[in-house]
Write a structure and sequence with these properties.
Length: 235
């Protein structure tokens, strides 16, 4: 097969404790999945049906343990926000997945950042337009190595945190998710056929806020370690 241009190689995230790589297919993100974050964004935290938005696969930037990723401050924003999240990695195909079978489709877990141009997101929201320019921009989804569920198990509790310059910003427990990982998998699979390589960013807790060049973020989830990202000037 001939291509007009050489295709880009797949985006791949390291598998913890292995030389293997996890090739990324799609990135789904669930919105307002912690009650306190819904409140700080001005919304009712009642348990309504979850909603999702997407980032392109090449928004994912792998961050190895012990590495500090330099993340350039993105263009067209003056309000660049961090959102620390648990990420679920899909390893088995399925549509209309029953809730009781949902975790069979989760291959592993990682720590992720849903970086957001908040001013652009809010502007689009107020105009009733899609969020892509606020959420789906280049390098907007740093994430750490994926830990196979076969090694760490499936868990529904554990600390999640983020610091900026060693000062606490976000801290919660994933038991506070409004929609659990199996519930998200089952619900999302009603609308999309999930395939190996899909990632689900499961939502961020309260404490989101702006970062600027020179700031260093550390985000972590209990059992999954911590990733380090430093914001640098625009490149």
């Amino acid at each position: 097969m001939a291509f007009a241009f050489p295709p880009e190689p797949p985006v791949a995230v390291p598998v913890a404790g292995s030389s293997n790589q996890f090739a990324v297919r799609r990135v789904y993100c669930v919105g307002r999945n912690y009650a306190a974050h819904a409140r700080e964004m001005g919304f009712d935290p009642d348990r309504e049906a979850p909603f999702f938005f997407c980032k392109p696969a090449d928004a994912v930037v792998p961050v190895a343990y012990g590495q500090t990723l330099e993340l350039a401050y993105p263009p067209q924003t003056s309000n660049f926000h961090h959102e620390a999240e648990l990420v679920a990695a899909i390893g088995k195909s399925g549509s209309d997945i029953p809730l009781e079978r949902a975790l069979e489709h989760v291959w592993g877990y990682a720590v992720g950042l849903d970086m957001t141009r908040r001013d652009l997101q809010i502007k689009m929201r107020e105009q009733g337009r899609p969020w892509e320019i606020g959420k789906a921009f280049d390098r907007s989804a740093p994430m750490g190595p994926i830990h196979p569920a076969a090694q760490v198990g499936h868990f529904d509790k554990g600390a999640l945190w983020l610091t900026v310059n060693d000062q606490p910003r976000q801290k919660t427990d994933i038991s506070k998710l409004i929609w659990s990982v199996p519930e998200m998998v089952a619900y999302l699979s009603q609308f999309f056929r999930l395939e190996p390589g899909d990632l689900i960013y499961t939502g961020t807790p309260e404490g989101v806020g702006a970062v600027k060049p020179g700031d260093t973020m550390r985000a972590g989830v209990e059992q999954l370690g911590e990733l380090t990202v430093k914001v640098v000037g625009a490149k």
